[in-house]
Amino acid sequence: MTVQSLQPSIDAWTQSIEAISELVSSLVDGEWNRPTECPGWSVRDVVSHVIGGECEALGDPRPIHTLPRDLYHVTDETTRYLEVQVDVRRHHTGPEMTSELEYTIIRRSRQLRNERRKPEDVISYPLYGKTTLADFLQARVFDVWTHEQDVRRALRRPGNLDSPAAHIARDVLLTRLAKVIAEDAGAPRRSAFVFDVHGPVEFLRTVRVNDEGQGSVDSSPSLGPLVTFTLDWETFARLVSGRVRGRRVADRLKIEGDADVAERIITSFPLAH
Question: Please, what are the averages of pLDDT over each run of 10 residues along the chain (273 residues)?
Fold first, then answer.
């Protein structure tokens, strides 16, 4: 049997990746080519990325493939690494894409059902380095759910904003948020930032920067936050995952407090890979 504490992540992953499979099962050629909020990636490319990520989780050899030189969105080693699994499938037909996705889901589901390792066991994965199995599975859930939403927005078929995977994605995004505010945006020490998020996934969280400049997240309200951000869940997810810049969602984002620090935070979220 699968280790019980891994089961919520496995169930969330299953629901989300099967939702992607259902979304793309009947697409025509033009729909596969619709652009997503991931720079340079179409719906086909996003699905290719999901397939590639699960193939690597299965331990499959990486494709031997040379990338074209004119891919403007390939800017560093990480994007170059990710692009190989995408570009190698760039000319695959719709039926080829859906059949490979379905087969990959079958193989990966079997692997997860037969998982014998413990949640705390340390594994190595190229993009994440050394991490626990539990954290790795949560990262896969986050990746699959985020790309499910990319596909849904591209196809104008919203849904699953409050799915089990969405709640796992929230926790991953909040962890990312603490680093962005404390390190990337260089927020002042001994300061607090409140995120009041409403919608399908609703929460109030405070990011605190301590005396050493380290960030942490908790659910206790702050009496004197430097900035309070009020926004809906989908906008929060798009913003923190780098799908959209703050100026594009300004009408859905209310900011109270230090405007300069708020602007540094909003512009510090790295663009999506």
Answer: 77 98 95 96 98 96 94 93 97 97 98 94 89 96 98 98 98 94 95 97 97 95 94 97 92 96 93 72
Please state whether beta strands 227-232 and 215-218 pair in parallel, antiparallel, or not at all (unpaired).
Answer: unpaired
Which CATH number does the domain housing residue 46 bear? 1.20.120.450
- Does residue 239 belong to any structural domain of this protein? yes
Q: Which residues constitute the domain of residue 139?
A: 4-159
3-state secondary structure 50-84: HHHHHHHHHCCCCCCCCCCCCCCCCCCHHHHHHHH
User: How many domains, in total, are found in the chain?
Assistant: 2
Q: What is the pLDDT of residue 1?
A: 40
pTM above 0.85, yes or no: yes
96 domain residue, yes or no? yes
**205 and 194 Cβ atoms separated by less than 8 Å:** yes
pLDDT of residue 272: 74
